[in-house]
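Appendix B, record 7
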Amino acid sequence: MKRSFTRKLALSFCLILAFFSVSLAVFELPREKKHKREIMEERLDSYAEMIYPRFFQRDGKAAADSLPHLFPDSLRITVIDRTGKVLFDNRLDDLSQTENHAGRPEIRKAAKTGKGSDIRLSASTRKPYLYYAKRLGNHYIRVALPYNPQIRRLLKPDGTFVYYLLLLSTLGIAFTNYTARRFGRIIKRLSDYSIAVGKNLPVTMPNFPDDETGTVSRQIAEEYRRLKESEVKLSLEHQKLLMHIQSSAEGICFFTPDRKVAFYNGLFLQYLNILSDQITVDASTILDEAVFSEVIAFLDERKDRNYFETSFYKQGKFFTGRVNVFEDQNFEIVLNDNTRQEQNKLLKRELTGNIAHELRTPVTGIRGYLETILDNQLDREKEREFVRKAYEQIITLSELIRDMSLLSKISESPDAFKFKPIALQDIIDKVKSDLDEALRKKNIVVRSTVPRDLSVVGSESLLYSVFRNLTDNVINHAGENLTVEIDQYSREGNLAYFSFADNGIGVKNERHLSRLFERFYRIEEGRTRDTGGSGLGLSIVKNGIAFHGGSISVKNRQGGGLEFLFTLLTHSKFK
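Structure tokens (predicted):
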């Protein structure tokens, strides 16, 4: 049976009150018991303080025999030396057979903190005691009271608190029921009103209480009436939207959660027929076409992702496809025929996002390390470690900014580079020298057969960046114990052909090869700096070579590793 709002509200509050009461009792009763035990231990502590000077102020049995007469008859007094040997016990006549007491719980606690207590069965008298031991000088004074019903009652928590808590809980539950019934009547009136409005029945505003709840209820009722009026207007706007979709410059098709076509415009069908091998008038065939396999895979395995975008190339046209999944699990597929200008805009937006992401990582690291130093009192060694880590992030940030500036300078300010004849082998030697430590660390040997007299007219810094980034790529990604071969294998007129090859791990999935020169592109899933580099290195290589009149491509070597093939215009071209 469906529970009413009143019952649900009352039950919820009752459960909260019950949980609160039980939690308070569970928390308070042990505390009260602990407090009473501490009071008892303070009393025993005063006994121990009185016993110590009296026992050691004079020698002989007279001092020991006088102790029991000064304290309650039930009090057991034991004097123990630092080794755990019992020197005196007013309940034992013969101490020769007494075990060493160093392992007793109360003695162990007293040895660590100066005092300790325990409730247990005596090994000698076979009776339960509340023991209390205190370390005084080189001895332990232990006093104990029989753990009899009287002591148990003294240590037992007072039940008055529980009864008082039970009374408060009962009153709280009663008040909750009253409040729930009051709110329930208001909700019932709102429910009846909404049902009547939903059925377009004539209805008047219910009589709500003249207080805050009544004000809120009247406001809700009025808003619901306005909502029903808005539904009519929304239906008209829906028709306008469909007309707008028909005239849209995008091909749009809406699908239900079970992948049935709900609506599509004519442009969608036109684009679909360009991308499909067969002419069709059924928009749902998009989910059967092989060219849309990535879209279908996304819909099958999307998990919690609600957006997907991909691109197509067919009949000499470039298309992008987008999938948007809405909250109600309906989804739309949008097809666009992109011009080159629109693709450039998209690339610029992606570049801006990539730059923001790449800058955010080191900046966040620097901020975290500096905040740790400012907000915490660190020792000097730890502080230097955090400063060093922040400095490393600053170096990373500087390198990223340097690479972005270099790419921007190549494309926007080519006149800023100084041109002069450059011997390529000198550039290669400088790269080897600068990276000597990193190369030796990974046991990488760089060999070059580029002629010493081969030169180009260009920018020394830019040509250095080309060979530096190619070598960095090997160090960061190719593996260890490698050989890098740099060869000038051909020359035709003013054009020289070069090979930069390594025998490392290469690129397992060759679909990545065509994208290696894109800015911020990394083969690894997710953006990470763990493998080194800013993601701009090979983009700088491509632009730097193009700047010097050449071109570059990359392929996997048959024996393993990557081989970059590129061309450069030689010195004579610029004479």
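Remarks on this record: Confidence is low (pLDDT under 50) at residues 525-532. Residues 248-338 form a domain with the Beta-Lactamase fold (CATH 3.30.450.20).
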